[in-house]
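If you are new to this repository, start here. Below is one unmodified record pulled from the training split, so you can see the exact layout before writing a loader.
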Amino acid sequence: MAADLSKDVIYLLEIGRPHLDYLGPVRHWGQLRIAASPDGYWVRGLTAEQLESTEIRSIPYKKLYYLYEGQPQLLFPYGGSVPVKKLPPTLLWTTLEKAMPLEHPFYNHNYFGLPEKLSIRLVAYSGHVEEAVALLVPMPVLEAYIQTAPAVRLEPLLWVIVDDQALVLGSPLLPLPGKSYWQRGSHLLPAGLDFEWSALAPTLEKELPTECWLLWDEDGGYVAVQKQVCRPLSISSFRLSRINI
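And here is the target side for that same chain:
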């Protein structure tokens, strides 16, 4: 973006009428205002930081602009320095919550699958690096470690068996070879990956059982792990799990 932009700059987002629902991830941002025009919708009130957020960057079919407070109709493309169009006159602004009322369809919360029409992809995460909060490690590797580890090192952690491997949850994680995950709500996502559309996470939170951790793999599949079966990590709990297998 041009270096001489000041605090008097106003940022706007333009999106076509068929794509209004893609604004769902920012619907709760209270400072935003939206207005309809013959060609689509305009959103104003974004900050420079929000323009670089995952929520905004994941919205497809959008166009970003800025204008100067003293020149309210000349629109510059975000990252450019030459005006390309004018803001439509006499726009009527309202909040996104009023313009996009929520509609809650019925879901069977006892069903652990995903609707066949919903395609889920995980992609490389473009935001800042998230702290790992879970580790999937082979059972023999964990068993060897906890035999000599001090109890204070294990106390903050929970664990559960998932497909013949140990899923360890908590922080700080153990220094063991394995597959690490970061947390988005009840979702445990492989380190370095995120949902292709960030709006998908809160939607899935509503549709899927909240009493479970949803352990995702790179192919978009997941395993639902009951939170209540996670046990404090200790030598005794590990030995007991071996007896019950």
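Two things worth knowing about this chain: The radius of gyration is 23 Å. The chain has a mean pLDDT of 81.
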